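Q: What would this complex look like in 3D?
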Amino acid sequence: MDTRRGALAVPKVRRVGFFTSIEPPPDSQRPNRSQSGPVEATTSSSPLSNSPSGNLISPVLIPPSRHRSDNLTSRAAAPVPVPGPSAFRRHLAHDRSLHVGSYNPADSLLGTSPPSSIGEFSEDSVSLFGFQRSDSAKLSSSFPNGGFDLTLAVRAPQESESRIANSSASQGIKKNVEVSGKSETVTTQSKKEKESKSLKEKTSKAERRAIQEAQRAAKAAAKGEGSRRAEDSGRANPGKAAKQPQLKKEKLPVTSSVSEKKAAVEKERKMDVPQTQMQYDDKNRVEKAKKRAVVEQTESKNKVELFLHLPQYERGNQLLNLSSNIFTLDTIHHAVYKVGLLHLAGDISGDNARCIAMLQAFQEAIQDYTTPPKKDLTMDLTAKINGYVSFLIECRPLSMSMGNAIRFLKNQIRKLPGNLSESEAKASLCSEIGRFIGEKIVLADKVIVQHAVTKIRDGEVLLTYGYSCVVEMILLYAHEIGKKFRVVIVDSRPNLEGQKLLRRLVTRGLDCTYTHINGISYIMREATRVFLGASSIFSNGTLYSRVGTACVAMVANAFSVPVIVCCEAYKFHERVLLDSICSNELGDPDAIANIPSFRTNAKHSKTMENKKNLQYLNLMYDSTPSEYISMIVTDYGMIPPTSIPVIVREYRREHLLL
Amino acid sequence: MLRSSASFILDKHLNNKPISITHSIDSPPPPSTSMADENSNPNPNPNPISAYYQTRAAHHGIVTSGWLEQAQAAVRRYPDHDYSSSPDSRRPFSVIEEFNNWRQQPDLAEAVAAIRALAAVIRASEATTMMELEIELKKASDTLKAWDTTSISLTAGCDLFMRYVTRTSALEFEDFNSAKSRVLERAEKFGEISCKARRMIAMLSQDFIFDGCTILVHGFSRVVFEILKTAAQNKKLFRVLCTEGRPDKTGVMLANELAKLDVPVKLLIDSAVAYSMDEVDMVFVGADGVVESGGIINMMGTYQIALVAHGMNKPVYVAAESYKFARLYPLDQKDLEPALRPIDFDVPVLPKVDVERSARDYTPPQYLTLLFTDLGVLTPSVVSDELIQLYL
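A: Here is my prediction, written as structure tokens for the whole assembly.
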């Protein structure tokens, strides 16, 4: 266990640069520092992580300190910005993000951003925060801070070491250092005192909190989770953290009217933000998300290391709770709730079905929606939808297509003309949703079928993998119009979705062969065309689809059998995907641990579950490089995978015009 | 030019016919007399001889000796075909004849001929609204396309023009007459554009031909010839290897044309491509059609040459005008409407022996380096971009 933990530190380090800004309110850290306890032990890896974050954040933000501290460092830092105007600041922050590159896909330049639920103010807030601190505290304190952070990574080790030695007592240090404007000479007591005065109240709260956390951590440690939790606790004081950054952003040094402003800003931000996957190895965010969560998920015990950024929960226990809650919960519309439960239980699968179910639930929710007094429909409804979406995410991570659909819906809400009455606005939204379903999904499928059928000739052997509703429609239609062909259905555990397709095709009188993916290299000899469905296609032509698809495509390529991917254009995504790791979904590990037909030995599997050196990895998706795809059939016709960006470009333009 | 060639006879026959704008032909000519009539069946029979290759043969003046017999045999097989089933027959004006008339001009590309023919439809039409005109045009272009399903540039040209008419006219002009004249103007311009495109491609490609290089060419493409001619005029020193281009020997013809320009030329038999590939610096080919994937459909043998060139890391350049871009997406060689043509083997072939008579093949984009078009020098993947912008 411990060794594994050590490895974890690496991703953390990378991410820190980007994120630190969000979380650490100085107050929370302080208590940690002063107070030792279980927390301390966890921090062994922290010094590493300190430096990058410091580098990234502080340099730009705190110019005065720069000058001074720079003497020390020979490093060629970016030109020092003037602390003054906020606009400038923002600009800088932006720059920085560019340089840094995003480790978190959510923050990427492409415009996908983290779920609204979680604080989004990463870079700006930090930088501003630093600035503010300097105001309120003393310049002296802030100066060294900036210089220190910057130099830390690059500079001579002595200094940093000394500092680390001091600070290492608590894990929170890194954050503290930048945020609170600690100097290199952390040891100076006077400074601390100053700060502590200003933060008195908060500290106490934070302390209490820290104690709580420590207790919790102790408990968790028993399970082997201890260290991680502790870290969380050390870092996160979410509520406060969020507040502070906002202040920064607004550039109000004074905290008085902060909350309202922050809220407004947040909302604005949220509207732009398409929902994407949260990084689940980011402790603070996870903590925060947990608090707001409707669905109580228990984290699975043996997490797969490479996929820590994805939610890994134990399955099967939440459903009962949730379904009993259905009448008592009022924050979430019952239709949405129902869809969420269906997703959770796995009763709806398939991207189109999930997306349609979600949109229809939203439709219902919008119909039942009334704007609360003194609120704006656009704002409030968007917030509502955001709430629904995060609930759905808790139930099951969204697919790319659902993300696109949500983005569409939010765009529609934002574009509502201001002069519409509430009922009119609702009606127009509902009809827009209906139109989306009709045009982008139902009609698109019909067009795809028409196109794809032209590629089926008599006497062919079509191979398909798993279950895709478009592929099913194509096969049935081709059969209907009297084409003579044979179908090979390749399937795989644990979902065995191919059986559904097999049943449907056989009842309609098609000639089928059914095999598992293990037999793919044998059966591919016979095939003349491979038809695949898609969950999403990214701008570099990478196909994101049910796990196993890549394997089928590669084998087909090796046998030079053309691979035809059928995908509606609304599933295209402007992001670029290079591997199956960054963005994926983990299924229930039990599904692969237990083989149902195989004389289920409950005892046996139980003992296996408790093995700490055993992790079950049940990946749901994989990515197929574009080289293996001969053609993509979409509602815009048959296109090569290299044309996905073209469609995304055109489609989005149209999207904006809608 | 071989005056005695069979195709010439056919062409002459066509030319002798009065052209129907005058409404003089009320009854169609007897079906069995000529190939052209046979072809005008809107629902072509399963293996007609590709009209597209007929035109090419006529333009290049080279025909195989068995041409006439085979053509007539093909016609005789369907002696009592009912001509009147054509949707055009009620109308005195036949778009196909118009098209055939245009495509006799040796320098006119098929797509341009198709557009000219469609322009003639507009001129002859008595429609009074844009909608009517559009429907009429649609019908005419469908007839044209059905008349020769093997010609890609014909289809592409029709589509392109239809696209233009539906896009521009409906939006910009309220007045029907001005719209009509505008569309006609456009059609006229198209001929010039086609010639200009060739010039432009020739200019673009000059940067790629360096002194002392050896160029392999396949078939007789007017664009490629233009490129080489321009290069020769620019006093570039280069050598050309021409494939023979069986069975219609287009390569021989190109070699002769180049020799007239004092370009050093060497003639290869088609099977010697791999043998001589190591002395080649680049391969130039034309295209019958450029498809959505960025691959090309061209004279039989192009795929083979591209494969060899790719295997030996030689660049393959394609010269094609943008009106040859077609919204087609063949997945493999058999995914095309086969354009059949007669093949003369010099030695008697028993009827039991099956002969592959397809006249063209499909070269996938991964074997092509660049496409020279009037839109610029493109990589194969941009073709789809252009097509999407054009048609969506």
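A: To summarize the key features: Residues 1-46, 61-91 of chain B have pLDDT under 50 and may be disordered. Residues 6-198 of chain B form one domain.
Q: Very helpful, thank you.
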